[in-house]
Fold:
Amino acid sequence: MKRILVVDSDEQVASILSIKLKREGFEAATAGNSADALRILPEFRPDIIVSEMILPKMSGIDFMKRVKMNPEMMRIPFVFLSSSRDVENKILALDMGAAAVLAKPLFITDLLENLKGILGEYELKNSSDSEENTPEGDISDISVLNILSILLENNSSGEVEFSASSDKHGVIFCDCGNVVRAETNDGDNKDGMEELYKILSWSDGTFSVNYGDVSVERNIFIPQKKIIEKSVEWFREYSAILRSLPPVDTTVHLDFANFVENLNKLPDDIDSVIKSIDESGSKISDIIDSCGGDRLRTADYLKQLFELSVVSSVNVNSVYKAEYPQWLVSSGKAVEIKEDLPEEKPEVFENIEKSEEPEEPEPVAAPVEESAGEPKKSAWDELAEQSSRRGKSGKIVLFVLLLAVAAAIITFIYYRGLI
Structure:
């Protein structure tokens, strides 16, 4: 005798269907919502499930996802009943693995014909399949968090493989419903939680579940419920930051002038984010991927850069020009530092060498009132005066030494009788 589970929030409809099915030789059980149905499934073991699409506590599609993720019940066919005209949900249900979606109201004879046909097809399919089906699907249809929750509910062991865009791959290993390891193809795989957070951030891609015993080196050591709690909290914060940013496929540029002006407002370790932005711009998703490590922190740094206008979607091509030092401006040398500063120094000493005779400086008797208003000497002027004084005193000493040498020579020749 084939067993059929009827799930419908309308008790009257569920009772009528149960009575009709029993008259046709089926064994039937009823549930008013998905949570009750999940409790009935392990003991009742239905051959087919007839469910309303709109259910309290959990939608019919989410209910089916959980059943399909259970290795012991993944082959049970689903028939959905729907009074809604929402075509997209019907298509989604069929894509997720529903055997049929029937519109309400319907005749009981039509339902029975569909059920008998579906049961016959699944019996033939199951007898011809030598390999066990592998649950698979899209991350956009069932999130990574939902997959982890289902594995915990089913107390399942195995590995879940994920493939996302840009050749990103990851694997989560579970032992009796507990996540023991998470790894990705572009990570160091030492901190399992960081690798798990990376997989959680993937919004598109596919997954497949391979049930079986696992024997791997653990890199996650906290209980599964704690993993779920931390993952939900992390994902909530990460999603909130992404909502404050432009779409992740937006190309952004660095405003170097604003970056220099706001250096004191930025964290010391933000340089990895800055370096990941190319001159021609980089996508937000690529920046987050290239920085690695804590993706939540990288997203938060990007948020700060946007708020300070250091990063934007507009390429301003700004160049930072620092203000000239006051001593350079006061000496009249306010030009490009790199080009003109080295050329000014030799000119001062060239002017000193051209002076032939030491000259005594003429005293300047300037009034006290006028000298008080004169500008302070620049560093360049002080340097020139010091060099000039050193040059003059040196030449005087040399002249005296020459005179002494000449006198000594004359005295020597005189006493030798040569004169």
